[in-house]
Fold this sequence. Notes:
alpha+beta; 2 domains; 22-stranded mixed β-sheet
Amino acid sequence: xxxxxxxALLITAAALIAIALAVRLLLNxxxxxxxxxxxxxxxxxxxxxxxxxxxxxxxxxxSVEDFGLRNAPPFPAGYMVKVARIDAxxxxxxxxxxxxxxxxxxxxxxxxxxxxxxxxxxxxxxPNTKPANKPxxxxxxxxxTILRGQLVASNLLPSNAPGPVFLEAHEIYGELDRVNxxxxxxxxxxxxxGQGRVRAEHFSFxxxxxxxxxFTLQLWAKQVFLADLKADACGGxxxxxxxxxxxxxxxxFRTTAKFSGVDMVAVLQxxxxxxxxxxxxxxxxxxxxxxxxxxxxxxxxxRGQGHVTLHNGRVPSLALNENLMRLVKFNNQGPAKDNPAxxxxxSTDLELANLRIxxxxxxxxxxxxxxxxxxxxxxxxSDELDYQGVARITTKQxxxxxxxxxxxxxxxxxxxxxxPFKVSGTIESPVFARASGHR
Length: 439
């Protein structure tokens, strides 16, 4: 009897060991890692890296650690996508029928680096590689969660050297619902690939920097829409929308924004020739659209229009009141004497085209000087100024001052002087001169 018991125990132990080994083998999905890498490389045409695959129960999910998708020539070495960890929760009922249905996806520390080549293609495209023999589709994912993400978008220069970054976001968090991966990767798809609420702690678009950004993200194949966008920008607040279209040879965009309480010192900081040239607070609205060209000039290929108002600032290099007074050589009297570079309010329209910002109506309320002007400034690096207008001195002058001012080309109405002027030179070194007559 004892011998039978021992045999039975040995058989039971052997069976348990066999079952444990079988379960361990079944759970060891990492043994499929080379096949998964090979499949993804065939599908994408790019080098793929996977650190480890793991399967867990309750809930049923596959984890992918250290996932990387590298650039292929002509793009520079580096990662197009890098994710520290991917957790994909699976539908067990679909798995029994040999279908992979992902109910939720968590991306931990994803880093995405889209780059555009001067000839048109992006580094995430794969125009020359045939698809795998047995492709499968991911279909619709119920929810995608993004944790601590990063996005850096850039262009290559015509020489294929790395160009400037035109879009950058850090510490991205978000949840997208009903994400259709196939709709996002199929250029012929017309349905939305997914949408959800996203926030980013830091955001840069061209020369625009923002913090605490939040928006509703909508995704299509090669199209991205940021709706209901809110952010803190340059000490103030901004709201609007931003749309990217990557279907053409060059990436295109359009954006609308309203802003208030913006600090001009912070706005001008990215521009080497603009730093320290103006202070004050700005509010207004702006619409920009155009193509993101393969150039080092951030405003090249962009057009736009808007209206801005600035309050209580200074323009030290212009010293508007002081320079206007010198033009007609009258005595400094009234508030203009104490605030030669200051203004109370500036209101102007703006139009951006061909690397030039033009204004048809500029209204400046200075301290003792009111100005109506128009003109433009180049933003191609030359910073050339071309403005002209009429200035009115709001403090009545004496008889001799008015007499000499008339000889200098000024007019006197109700005891107040006004005269035409023009401004040329550059932002760094403006040149004031008397104009021949009123505009």
